[in-house]
Amino acid sequence: MTTLARATDTLTRDALAVLQPGFAGTTAPDWLLRRIGEGLAAVALFGRNVTSPEQVAALTAQLRAEREDVLVAIDEEGGDVTRLEVRTGSSFPGNHALGAVDDVGLTRAVAAELGRRLAAAGVNFNWAPSADVNSNPDNPVIGVRAFGSDTDLVARHTAAYITGMQSAGVATSAKHFPGHGDTGIDSHHAMPRIDVGADVLAERDLVPFRAAIAAGSRAVMSAHILVPALDPELPATLSRRILTDLLRGELGYDGLIVTDGIEMKAVAGTYGIERGTVMAIAAGADAICVGGGLHDEGTVRRLSDALVEAVRAGELSEERLADAAERVRALARWTAANRPAEGAFDTADGDVGLRAARRALRVTVADDSGPLAEAPYVAAFTPVANIAVGDETPWGVAAELARLLPGTETGSFNGADAGTEALAAAGSRRIVAVVRDEHRHPWMAAALDVLLAARPDTIVVEMGVPRAAPRGARHLATHGAARVCGRAAAEAIAGA
Q1: Burial class (CB in 10 A: 0-12, 13-18, 19+), 348
Q2: What percent of the chain lies above the pLDDT cut of 70?
Q3: pLDDT of the residue at 283
Q4: What are phi and psi of 125, to 5 degrees?
Q5: Catalytic pick from 96, 188, 441, 479?
Q6: How remote is the C-alpha of 365 from its chain's centroid?
Q7: Strands 219-222 and 256-259
């Protein structure tokens, strides 16, 4: 059935139109359907809303029964950050693996197939790709989400990803403008700061965004980061200098600007979500992402009321809010016009993700013992996951090794005693040690020291950014922890 819109005034409808809220559950709650009828133009899906592609398709059909052109947004980067396959791990390697291969045709094909699957599930707006240049090796939140640390590589693969994804009718959102790669703090927790000159930013961080704009990205996502060379006072999401003067003016971008999650601590902990929302729209943002943490009707009401009150108080111009709302509706019209026709994907390439993961695998140390013939013990040294990745998604090589070598056992270890605990658990079995960003975790490096001192035949698999010196009897780098990356590594270990 279709909900009849109430006699909602234009100002309130515009305020609702710029919000992209999440919700709880795997079906749309009544309050969400009612808000769509009142003017809400977009809905965000997170891992909690997903059990299967079929369920997502039913959910998006439910939303479109209320508004045919509703934007259904998701944060589906592939690789470590997956929502569509949150409980199984992604069928696609992430950006760092694609950058390691450095085949723009492959990147385009992977993005097109991922876009096809999103479109088939009724999702038409992807908050991806990351266009960040991961110039800080200790970055706690970007890492394998970036194509790499080389500016030109990141730029060409950002453009290829956008071209591939949007060929499936799914709008992309290059993020996190003006570049989150040189941060040592996760903006989910606090306000990062990038202290480099404007010339460095122009030659390094802005280049991939120029490429994204040239490739026709329908959206750009702002970062909650302070960049004093661009604005000494306000973070990018709240800065008119950055969003309007730089992104719209200097870079000539005319598409949708969407914020990163407004409830992230970098904004919410400093300004509050209501004030942050008003400041973001006033600065030039067109849409407010919210729902990763706050996903109830009360949050939607608070934010829409804050926008309406700001207009009435003269803190936000009615024209700016109307312009933002129109940009959201324009993107909705684009997605409706570019919705794939029935049977449009008869040439789908379901294996492209696995092929890409196999090509990204690097055996950086190799002994001459050949493939494993007996089931090993897999010791996974597990760091605390950042919020973007989450802790719901399985990772590692144990499940795939167990398929190839039945009887494989595994355990997860963390902290100062991880190495000795793993040794005790493994017993006499050959050990496969799986790490993730060893270079960022001293306890993890120490655990490998313990293992290799006692068991020099240990095989090491690095599933993060491979910056630490390769070691072990064999050392494999997957450039990401997607399920297909684990499968590629398991195949190499078992000789499959």
Answers
A1: middle
A2: 97
A3: 98
A4: -145, 115
A5: 188
A6: 31
A7: parallel
- In whole angstroms, what separates CA 327 from the centre of its chain? 23
Helix boundaries (H) for 92-196: 95-101, 104-120, 151-166
- Name every residue whose Cβ is closer than 8 Å to that of residue 20 and which is 6 or more positions away in sequence: 42, 43, 44, 71, 73, 258, 287, 288, 289, 290, 291
pLDDT in tens, 172-199: 999 999 999 998 887 787 788 999 999 9
State yes or no: is 69 an active-site residue: no
Write down the pLDDT at residue 7: 38
Q: How are beta strands 125-126 and 171-177 bridged, if at all?
A: parallel
Which residues of the chain, if any, have pLDDT below 50?
A: 1-7
Residue 289 near residue 127, CB atoms below 8 Å = yes
Residue-wise pLDDT tens digits, 210-239: 999 999 999 999 999 999 999 999 999 999
**Cα separation of 422 and 244, whole Å?**
53
From the candidates 80, 260, 286, 437, give the one annotated as an active-site residue: 260
CA–CA distance, 494 with 369 (Å, rounded to integer): 11
Report the DSSP beta bridge partners of residue 466.
none
- CA atoms within 13 Å, Cβ hemisphere of 230: 30
State the Cα–Cα distance between residues 307 and 401, nearest whole angstrom.
53
313: nearest Cα among 305, 303, 325: 305
What is residue 207's predicted lDDT score, i.e. its pLDDT? Answer: 98
Q: Could you tell me if 324 and 18 are in contact, meaning their C-beta atoms sit under 8 angstroms apart?
A: yes
313 CB-near residues (< 8 Å, 6+ apart): none
**Distance, CA of 332 to CA of 436 (rounded, Å):** 38
HSE of 180 in the Cβ direction (CA atoms, 13 Å)? 32
In whole angstroms, give the CA distance from residue 188 to residue 398: 30
| Residue 287: C-alpha distances to residues 17, 19, 133, 273 (Å) | 8, 6, 24, 13
Burial of 456 (0-12, 13-18, 19+ CB in 10 A): exposed
Q: In this structure, what are the phi and psi dihedrals at residue 273, rounded to the nearest 5 degrees?
A: -75, -30
Strand ranges, E, within 41-193:
42-45, 71-74, 125-126, 171-177
Annotation says 439 is catalytic? no
Q: Are 445 and 464 in contact (CB under 8 A)?
A: no
Q: What pLDDT was estimated at residue 345?
A: 53
Cα angle 158-100-418, degrees, rounded to a multiple of 5: 115
Average pLDDT taken over every residue of the chain:
94
Q: Going by C-beta distance under 8 Å and a sequence separation of 6 or more, which residues neighbour residue 417?
A: none
Tell me how far apart the alpha carbons of residues 17 and 9 are, in angstroms, rounded to a whole number. 12
Does this model's pTM top 0.90? My answer is yes
